């Protein structure tokens, strides 16, 4: 064992060390130790929730300090359990039920690791790890908070941790043993064996669970009976981090659906997609509302309510994904009995928080006064539009369940409802964002503000008119969407030019948070333009082709050269060789596939995509026809990559805002003043 340790250090490779340790100590001992670590973490979470809350009430410093110690220890114990489960997947320890059901010896190593969170039990353990990690970060980096507020934040966070650790141990134990370990496993769902799904769930969980900290801050503020500018500054970076991770996670999921499912779309209003989109919308509203609290000490009660609802919708999403009550292509679809426990957690935390809010909302009354024509009003409108958008998505997602339970009707709510009900609010939101960015606080003259954004408005109207004139008899979605995207981007440019008065030095001295906001708004504009262009101008062709036969889609010639049978690492592939020519130029080869995974007896589709700045050519190989030809489905997708480019730009804006010095220094300065 010592030799293995030394060799691992020399090679800088942790895998031999893991194998060596795992070989020298019986598997069962590791698994039982990890299970015990979760039990101890549950006990610590109960202590860590009660002690600081009691200590804050009675001003007992010794009890309040237990909250931070407990949170750090919980993180270490859950982290240890997660490492042990990961090693079990890597070494194919089929004595664990979760490894047997979700892994296989022939599976590539990358997907053995990702199999840890590619199932209900393992993903819940990842959830608990991130939950305690956020709590530990708040314990370590929150020392400058007022002591009672810090203790209450950690106490509430520990209580949330206790609920999920109990859920894991009593209903979803990842270390459940099989009495007679099999020689091999059943393998991971083939749809999850993809690089997009390697990163998509962890980023989503970082976003989901990150909202638990904002929830803890909200409950702590209600218990303290005080919300002020300092609280708004403290809660903003946590909200921003959660929103940032959700943005990346949603973008990765959309990208995966686009190239992996082979349906040709990037968003299907699937219940699981909506489960992540709803908290993203509320988190965006919370970010803007917290700005008003920080700058003007207004909208206090509304901001607290948004923090509660943001975490509440995260729990709603968890219920949708894990209860099995709504079908989805990528839900865990577990038994509804587990969904009952999630509903109990949802009812306890959200119901209890709303009751506390009703009792304490009077203490959140704001004395700030502002005119209708002001930035505060623009941010209120922003919040209203985002909240209604979330409510529309929620109704459309949950309505099939309501109809079945109470109306005894089976129905589905598809894209037509969401597109018609959701789009107007996005249009309204995009329309007011540039105005809200330049209008003054407290009181403004609307005519002067509109004059400042007039160049951007003229540009966008001209662009919409040009596009409409160029198209013939097509939808207005294209001109309107592209004009709105240009409106957002040009509004950002105009705002930066006006704030810097045309001087590069002044532009460079702008706070990073302001730069981050501008970049994020521009990213939203790019995404809106991409969605509108793809929706309005997509072209599709379906043809049956023999080798060396061609078909046309738009200006592109699609030629099937051959179809071959290929052996993959753990799958069999029917791979097509297809040439794509534009206006006689080229060709460029793409290789769409149809894969079959023998272990799980499941097929998947791998799309051939010729990507470009202005468009994607998207090709799918179908079944062989009776006459020997192959079904070939091809698309031209204008501006497809702009959708994910906009997501990346939004995420970069969030990262830049998080690095703002005011988040690291300003809150601390304010908190020390409060302590004194």
Q: Uncertain segments of ≥5 residues (pLDDT<50)?
A: 1-15, 665-676
Mean pLDDT: 84
Could you say which structural class the secondary elements and strand pairing correspond to? alpha+beta
Helix content: 55-70%
What multimeric state do the chains show? single chain
Cα(first) to Cα(last) distance is: 55 Å
Number of E-type strands: 10
Largest sheet descriptor: 6 strands, antiparallel
How many helix segments?
21
What characteristic shape results from the CA principal axes?
globular
Radius of gyration: 27 Å
Number of domains: 2
- Portion of residues in beta strands equals 5-15%
Describe this structure in words.
This protein is α+β, with helices and mostly antiparallel strands. The protein has 2 domains: 2-375, no CATH class; 539-641, Tick-borne Encephalitis virus Glycoprotein, domain 1 (Sandwich). The protein contains 21 helices and 10 strands. It has helices at 2-11, 14-24, 27-58, 61-90, 97-102, 109-114, 120-141, 147-171, 195-224, 229-260, 271-296, 300-323, 336-360, 375-406, 415-438, 446-470, 477-500, 504-508, 512-537, 640-658, 661-675, and strands at 539-545, 549-553, 556-567, 572-582, 585-590, 593-597, 602-606, 608-611, 615-624, 630-638. The strands form 2 sheets. Strands 2, 3, 4, 5, 6 and 7 form a 6-stranded antiparallel sheet that branches. Strand 2 and strand 3 form a beta hairpin. Helix 7 (120-141) runs antiparallel to helix 8 and helix 9 (195-224) packs antiparallel against helix 10 (229-260). It is globular.
